[in-house]
Structures are given as C-alpha cells and as structure tokens.
Design goal:
The chain is α+β, with helices and mostly antiparallel strands. The chain has a single domain (3-106), classed as Arc Repressor Mutant, subunit A (Orthogonal Bundle). The protein contains six helices and three strands. The protein has helices at residues 3-13, 16-28, 35-42, 46-58, 77-88, 96-106, and strands at residues 33-34, 62-67, 70-75. It has a three-stranded antiparallel β-sheet with strand order 1-3-2. Helix 3 packs across helix 4. The longest helix is centred in the first third of the chain and has 13 residues, at 16-28. It is elongated.
C-alpha cells in the first residue's frame, strides 16, 4: 500500500460515524450487515449513512454486495491488512522479529 492510499483510509476513519461503522462491520465479520441495519444500529439517517458507507468503500475498507433490493456491507479484510502492513512496514528499526508478537496478535483467520 502506498502513502496516498493509506492517507485516504485514515481520512475516511477520521470521522466518528465512519469509525463507528467500520468497527461495527469488523465485529459483524464476513457476513457483514445490510445498510439499513447499520443505520438502525448506529441511529443514523439512511441518507447520511449511505454517504459514509460510500467514503469507507472508496477508501478500500469496505466492500458491498447486492442482495435483491438491499445492499450488504462487509469489512474488506484485505484492505485492512494492507493498511496494517503499511503501518508496520518499517517496524522496529529493521528488526521484524521484535514486532512479531504484535503482528501475530493482529493477524486473524478472517476472510
């Protein structure tokens, strides 16, 4: 991941509703949640939620799948891993073994 993409992701997360959405979808796991359910869970108007979901998707942190007339949003674990890898790229002054416990703690078997 390059710096420009990382900055886009950080900018997307630098707003309280989007951060709440991101954390909610991480918690929801690979099943994700329908857009309306996200709005209801966070008590946010659906048009406002739609704009926030779009920002997170464009930042590579979410993906969406159409289910009939509704859209399901799912945390994009590939994008999240890329962002974490960017943060840890130069970890520990070139001694990656020092950071290994942190990397192992952050790693999950998520899709």
């Amino acid at each position: 991941m390059d710096k420009k993409i990382a900055l886009t992701a950080f900018a997307a997360l630098a707003q309280h509703t989007r951060l709440d959405v991101f954390r909610l979808l991480i918690k929801a796991g690979p099943e994700g949640m329908a857009a309306g359910d996200i709005a209801d869970a966070l008590d946010v108007r659906q048009n406002t939620m739609s704009a926030n979901l779009s920002v997170l998707q464009q930042a590579g942190l979410l993906r969406r799948e159409r289910e009939g007339r509704s859209i399901r949003y799912i945390a994009d674990f590939t994008g999240i891993r890329g962002l974490l890898a960017f943060l840890l790229e130069d970890c520990c002054g070139g001694r990656p073994e020092t950071c290994q416990p942190l990397i192992e703690e952050l790693a999950c078997a998520c899709p």
